[in-house]
């Protein structure tokens, strides 16, 4: 059962956050890792990161809205044919995309 605000404050007033943080660091260094969350990266996010562009810069390059690109990057929607191909090229050969961008500077 969730605690109410007063119960949370009472519990937290007894905590030594500094000591908890130090213990967490010791645990990590000792290889005692608690919960590990794996995040799957979408092809859109991987391509953008390999190019070193912001979401808005990459969306402009692809000719789509930032919102559409965010949907692709967060896995809410899938890019279609041509965009999917460009994302693959960007992920595999970011140098080729940079070369094209430099030629249009």
Automatic annotation (TrEMBL):
Gene3D superfamilies cross-referenced by the UniProt entry:
lambda repressor-like DNA-binding domains (1.10.260.40)
Question: Taxonomically, which superkingdom?
Answer: Bacteria
Q: Which SUPFAM superfamilies match?
A: lambda repressor-like DNA-binding domains
Citing just one GO molecular function, the answer is: DNA binding
Q: Does the keyword Transcription apply?
A: yes
Keyword DNA-binding assigned to the entry: answer is yes
Q: Tell me one Pfam family matched here.
A: HTH_3
Kindly state which keywords UniProt assigns to this record, in alphabetical order.
DNA-binding, Transcription, Transcription regulation
Instruction: Tell me which residues make up the HTH cro/C1-type domain.
Output: 46-80
PANTHER family assigned:
ANTITOXIN MQSA, MERR FAMILY BACTERIAL REGULATORY PROTEIN
Query: What protein is this chain from?
Result: Transcriptional regulator
* Organism of this sequence: Melaminivora suipulveris
């Amino acid at each position: 059962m969730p605690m109410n605000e007063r119960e949370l404050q009472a519990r937290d007033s007894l905590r030594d956050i500094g000591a908890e943080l130090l213990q967490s660091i010791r645990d990590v260094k000792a290889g005692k890792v608690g919960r590990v969350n794996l995040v799957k990266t979408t092809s859109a996010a991987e391509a953008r990161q390999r190019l070193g562009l912001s979401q808005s810069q990459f969306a402009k390059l692809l000719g789509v809205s930032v919102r559409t690109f965010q949907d692709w990057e967060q896995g809410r929607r899938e890019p279609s044919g041509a965009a999917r191909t460009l994302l693959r090229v960007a992920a595999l050969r970011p140098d080729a995309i940079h070369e094209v961008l430099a030629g249009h500077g």
